[in-house]
Each structure stands twice: as C-alpha cells, then as structure tokens.
C-alpha cells in the first residue's frame, strides 16, 4: 500500500464515504440560482441572536445538527470535528460547536477551510482513527464585512472586482467505507491534494479572485501532475470562490502551463448568485460558499451519477485587516479534494 | 490493529519519532530560568522587521529553518506543515512560512496549537501519509497584546492573574519510525487525546488560567480514562500555560474527580519565567510558551531518559477581542500528546 502520490497528493486505499451533507443559507443565497437546493433558507440574518458573530455560531450549530439529523447520528457517534470559519480566532466555530462536545481540531484556511476540513477528516477516517467524523465551515456576510472591510453602516461603494461573502454553512459527515452506516452512501473522498501558500503580490483586498487564482492554479496543476491525470479525467474541476475575474485569471495561468480547463471549470462563487440580477459583482465568497454549493449542488450530482469524478478546490485568501493595513500582499491557498461516485 | 482508545484518544502502532526540535525566544524568555536551553535568544523584538506581525512571521520562519538545519533536512523532504499562531486569520504563519513552500494545514487552537499541530502531524505520519512532517507554532508578546488587549502604548495596569505572552516559536520535525532518518531519535509521540471546547463561564480576559483550567482537567481526565492509566504512569503531566492560579484550579478540579496530580504536574507557563523577579504575575502564555518549553526543556529530558513518559497538554483560551467586547465567556480547549523515551 502506498497512498502517497507525488509531492502533495494522497489516494486513499479505503475512500471514506460522505454519509450526509447539510446546508443552511441566508435570504440572498436563497434568492440565487441554487436557492431551491439548500436544506434551509433563514430569512433572519441574525439567526435569532444579538450579534453577527453569535448569528454565525448559531448558523454553524444548526447546520451541524441538520447533517446529523439527515443520517440519524448523534454527537457521541462522531469522533472528530474538523471545523473553522473566517473570523479572528475562529470564534464562530468555538462558540457554535460548544454544545456538541465533540473532540475538535480547529482550522484556519480562510475560504479554503471546506477543503482543508474534508482533507483532514478523510485522512483520519481512511487511517482508521475514526469511524465517523464531521467537516464543518461557515461564513456570514455581516460578520465578514465587519471583520475584513468596513462596518456595514459605512455603506462604502464596492468595486466590480469584489465578491459577496456567502451567509451559509455546510456540514459533512464522513464515515469509513467499512462501516455499516456507509453502505448506502454513493459519494466518496477518493484522495486529496494539499495546497501551499502562494503569493503573486496582489494587494487589493477588493480583488480576492486575483489573489487566490494563483493558489488554485498551483494546486490544480500539482494535483494533475501528482496523479498523472488530465483535465479530461474529471467531469468538473470546481474552485471555491474565485468569481468571474478570478476564473479568467485561473484559466490564463493554467493555459501558460499548457493545460486548458475550458468547460470543465466551474466556480462555486459564480454558481451561487446570479451576478446580473443580485448585484454581487464578481461572485460569491467565504468558507460558506464552497461548503453550501458542495452540499446542495455538487454532491447530489455525484450521488445521482450525473458526474463520476469532481476535483473540488476551495480557495482561501490569507489576509487580515492588520496585514492589509500594514501594506502586505494577499497570499492564497487552495486545497484539492477528489470526490467520486462510488456505487 | 485498533489504535482507537475510548472517546478521544489514539495509541499509535508505529509511534512517530521527533527528529529535531528548535526554539527561538525573545530577551525576556532568555532572561528566565530556561534561558540557557533555547537555541537562540533574539534581543531585537522586531526581528529586523518593521511591524510586530512581520516580526512574529520572521521568528516562525527562522525557527522552522533552525529545526531543519538541526536534522539536515530540506523543505522538499518535509511533506506537510501543521502550523498556527494567535493572530487574527493566522497571519504570522501565512506570511512566515510562505518561502518554505511546504503543503500547509493551517490551524487555530489558540495556545493549544502546539498540541494540535503535534497531534495532526503524528496522525499523518503514523498513517503512512508522510515520512516527515513539521509542527510549528509561535507567539509574540507585542503582537498578542495588540491583538487581544491594549496597545502597549496604553500602559494599562496588569492584574496579578494575568499571564505574559511568550515571544517565542517552537518547531518540531517528526518522522516515521520506519524511516532511516529516525534511527537515532529517542523520543516518540506515542499517542494523543483530542480536546473538546469546555466553557465554565469565565469572562475575565485578564484571567486566562481560570478560563483554560477546566479544559485541561477535561482532557487529562479523558486521557486517563481512555488509556486506563493513572497519574503514576507518567513522570510528568505538563500543561501549556495555565500559570500559577490556573494550576491551583486544575488541581482542585482534578481532585473533585478523585485524581491527585500533586508533584507530577508542571506548567510551561510557570517554568519559563521567574515570576518573583520577572514581573510576569501568574506566568507565561501564548502558543510559543508550550512550544519553546517543549523544545528546550521537556524533550531533552525525555531524550536523556530522565523522564520515560510525559503527557503534554497545551491549553488554549478561545476568545477574540470581539467576543470579549460582546460580553461572551471564554471557552478553553486542551490537546494531550503522549511523549515517550523510546531507546
């Protein structure tokens, strides 16, 4: 058994199955093209709480519970939780998942956290460290604007290169292929490619797609080289939240490496909103963007066998308001996850 | 093979070896009781950079390089980096390790990150996902004060319950027990116990020991139950940064569960400074506290066989300035790592 492929990839001997996935989003996401696919659309942006941060914690908790409900599992049956969010010190997660009392690995991968959490959860299960683990991520438009940009009250104009942070959380329960609970699951995590920090010197925090596209290109290229595969081996290669401008840059960067993504490429940030009517400019972003699109749109297509193999590449921009104000560039990171139909 | 023990613990079949450990600290830590043990004491608190955040990034990078130098390894030989720090969005790590170009799993476990990173790195190696991986964490007094409390210029009085954030970074290179490079290594990670978020409702951010002690008690108790062991099975049980008041609370909480820690307990926060002469009040804290004490003081004792088995329990307080200002309590988390002499 050698599961190691090339510099940064693994192919699992016993690909963990995705038992259940849940997505809860806000009103704007509910109004978008995927609106009919989410598990719940919450019209109260505060989720019944007093602050934006508590709202995001509540969103994360409810999504975790929804995923457990879908596969009839209790907290005690889930051995590890791999979770994170965009806020400073990951407070949406820490306060959100407190009542679950599941051993936690707290993560920070910016908007790539969905990929990072699925990577680590699948590594743990394939290794036999757990029968069952949960990957969980969230973002909230208002808490993210407050964290990274202006308070909403400031009402600053948004340049056309900006993306709109998704209010949404995605929860994924993974189980060993050998566990009885996994017998009906039809999608597995077949392997992963772990991203490096990539910095092309972009300094415009209103242009995240440009900051993250080089990291996405790096991970996709590394993945194809490590695996000895081509774009044609995938039904789709789906990035997290590059948006429309980031997509153009990604395709150009891949073209320079001799790889044409063409119609195989989709981006969760472009799928989740209708930029033409929803005023979201370049697209959606945030940890919740890839997570909810995966749960509501990508996984069902894999479950039905419409797609056989997808490379999901959630992308993260590794800035903070401090690093931005100190004039630093915005490095990116992207984590690749191979999802396969397995019935 | 069943490596799973109880609710939250693993015992590895092939315990990964610690090939090399490095520690770099600031002047105050160099003046403390462990001063003669660190690899380097840097008297320039800015580490040659312009900002506190860049200083911490540089500290982390230099420490990573020091660890690689000690075991004669290059970046290309290290398959994964598990790293994190205390700053919002983990910027000390993202900018610090950029030039290494090692696939990264970014973590946030507050001051427990040293335990979290060693846990995940050892899980990856024991599973055969990597021959070699690095666990890396840092903290910096000035960047942490700026992040969590007052700007230093404010010169606020510090209550006696406060701890002093360690300026320091620790890097650990772990390798498979089967790799040739590991043949001379004499300390292994024998197992882990993964912590849950524990909240006793403490709201005083100047009293971190009280906020974290319940999490430490929870993890230590869980560990002993999972493993079927008692305190006497360990030469030491060493928490990360509870400080002197936190130690008292920990011993009381453990006593209520019928477990007497007595002399077996030490705390990195109490080891790293001389509270009597260094004006550090309850002790040291920060990701760098457990990491540098482990590298400079704990591992050498295990290497020499003075200690045969230590349970290291880095402790983290999961607050942010936003959660604090919004009146939230401060939950804690603690990750246990079993370190054994293995010659």
Write the layout of secondary structure elements.
Two copies of one chain form a homodimer.
Chain A: E1 4-5, E2 9-11, E3 17-25, H1 27-30, E4 40-41, H2 52-71, E5 80-84, H3 91-96, E6 104-106, H4 113-126, E7 132-139, H5 141-148, E8 164-165, E9 168-175, E10 187-193, H6 208-227, E11 236-239, H7 243-256, E12 265-267, H8 268-271, H9 275-278, E13 284-285, H10 287-303, E14 309-313, E15 315-317, H11 321-325, E16 332-334, E17 336-341
Parallel strand pairs in A: 3-4, 5-6, 5-7, 8-13, 11-12, 11-14
Antiparallel strand pairs in A: 1-2, 2-10, 3-9, 7-9, 10-17, 14-17, 15-16
Molecular structure report:
- Two copies of one chain form a homodimer.
- With 343 residues, the first copy, chain A, is α/β, with parallel strands linked by helices.
- Chain A has two domains: 4-175, Peroxisomal Thiolase, Chain A, domain 1 (3-Layer(aba) Sandwich), CATH 3.40.47.40; 186-341, Stage V sporulation protein AD (Peroxisomal Thiolase, Chain A, domain 1, 3-Layer(aba) Sandwich).
- The first copy, chain A, is 34% helix and 22% strand.
- The first copy, chain A, has eleven helices and 17 strands.
- In chain A, the strands form four sheets. A seven-stranded mixed β-sheet of chain A has the order 1-2-10-17-14-11-12. A six-stranded mixed β-sheet of chain A has the order 4-3-9-7-5-6, with helices on both faces. Chain A has a two-stranded parallel ribbon with strand order 8-13.
- In chain A, helix 3 links the parallel strand 5 and strand 6 (104-106).
- The radius of gyration of chain A is 18 Å and the shape is globular.
- The first copy, chain A, starts with a strand and ends with a strand.
- Chains A and B meet through helix 3, strand 6, helix 4 and helix 11 of A and helix 3, strand 6, helix 4 and helix 11 of B.
